[in-house]
Amino acid sequence: MASSTRCITVKFDKYPIEAVRYAAYAASGSAYVLITAAPGGAVVRFEPKPGGSASAAERLFKTELEDELLRSRVAAGNRELREFLLLKALNYRPPAPQQDDSGLTPQQEKELNDLISQIESEIKAESAGAASDPLGITSTWEDKYERKDSRKKA
Fold first, then answer.
1. Are 133 and 139 in contact (CB under 8 A)?
2. Of 3, 60, 109, 138, whose CB is crowded by the most CB atoms within 10 A?
3. Where are the extended beta strands (E) located within the chain?
């Protein structure tokens, strides 16, 4: 073991193995990291890479180990929520297309459209044949009273 190599013993009763592994990966940028089994835990050894420092890697490892412990607690705390969201995403069904809310069957709808077209044709026929309006019901106010005003003015 070189003199710049450093070792840390981590107990699994405080830190899960996944947290140790993730923290070691985070520290592997400036040092080679080797994890070996020990009774009740693991020994993590840091050997500096060229231009790196084993002590800096050790400090980073300790910081990341605490961070990973917090991350694993948060992940465990909302595991059910993540599973629920994943289940909803996998079982997504788009909403059914909106149906016509008239409550009519297709046959009733056809009958209604036929009645409407029949009434429209009757209205057209009456308005075409009703050129004479003896009571002046269909005339506008302007038509009715402008004629009287023009007669008075003349």
1. yes
2. 60
3. 6-11, 31-38, 41-48
**Is-contact 29 59, C-beta < 8 A?**
no
Q: Grade residue 60 by pLDDT with cuts at 50, 70 and 90.
A: very high
Q: What are the structure tokens assigned to 140, written together? A: 């506008």
Confirm whether pTM is higher than 0.70. Answer: no
The residue count of the chain comes to 154
CB 33 within 8 A of CB 24: yes
Structure tokens at 134: 């003896």
Task: Report pLDDT digits (tens) over 109-134.
Answer: 899 999 999 999 888 777 766 556 66
Chain centre distance of CA 86: 12
Separation CA 147–CA 143 (nearest Å): 6
Contact 43, 5 (CB under 8 A): no
In the structure encoding, which two tokens stand for residue 6, read together?
A: 């450093």
User: Phi first, then psi: what are they for 31, rounded to 5°?
Assistant: -150, 155
